[in-house]
Amino acid sequence: MKIALAITILAAASLLAADKEKVFSGPQPGEKITSFEVQSLTAQGPGDKRDPIKAAGERPVVLVFLHGLERSMAQLMRVVDIYGATQKAKLNTEFIFLMDDPIHLPRVVKSLKTRTRIGYSVDGIEGPGNYGLNKECLMTLVLAKNGKVTANFALVQPGIADAPGIIAAMAKLAGDKNPPDARTLLVYNNPINRRPMYVPLDLEKLDTSTDAARKQAIQKLIAEVRKLREQNSANQRPNAQPNTRPNPRPKPRPNAGGPKKPLPGAVPTDARMVGMLRQFIQKTNTDADVDRVLAQMKTRAGDDADLLQQACDGLTRVISVNYGTPYAQKAGRAFIGRHTKK
Fold first, then answer.
1. Does domain 1-261 have CATH number 3.40.30.10?
2. Is 316 within 8 Å of 336 (Cβ atoms)?
3. Structure pTM?
């Protein structure tokens, strides 16, 4: 029965991985980053306003944009925070909340106890206008050096499984040839008993290429199920501490109490079209700027029906989440009406 359960989990994980859609949020590798303003945060309340790009000087930057907080994010945030703090002479790591009402953030900051800087964007929930941050991503990491992006992680449901790739990208920026793994960093964060905190099994790293490898993968899955059952039993004991969320989201996400409705439209697969969309949604755009970007999108598509449909799908997506100026919303709908497939 256990083996059958493990095989089912393994098969489901493989299907989910294959069906995962590429998500875009923030400037992509090779693109430039621009200055923006952040309000610093302390446990006592807001601090000074500053520009994290200018504050970094010649050091590379690791910008961690947060559209909310969930329990599953806690370990990943600790890993990024601890490693960023150990490399502070070579990296400028910052956590930046994106929200319209930051009134509860000082309490959140006190609970997080971060070693690196933390603040919130003065531009509100959308963040810096020309960064094109996706509100569906709870966490977006933008790593940059010499004014250009070197790595981007757009995470809809961030968790500790994302840590290896992020640590590797941070280490590359810092010139650290032997970075610690996530488990080592979490032990460092738990100095009382020096016992590693629980790190979930990374299903994407399971090897299923041979019969022998598949048997080992099944054994790992069985062990993982056993750990989860033990953890669940401990939480249900009469004297056990309640398994509370470390930091609730400042605002509930849409459809939090029911099934999530898919957003209309789609993110373009053409990188240049994605860049134009990011220009289109800037809140600082004039009407002329909007018209210029739409004309560039039409020129880029030319006679290619697929590219034109990508433009329409991208505009549909950003308009559905109310990105851009009121004129951009109106002009974008008109563009869709003229060019979308009937």
1. yes
2. yes
3. 0.56
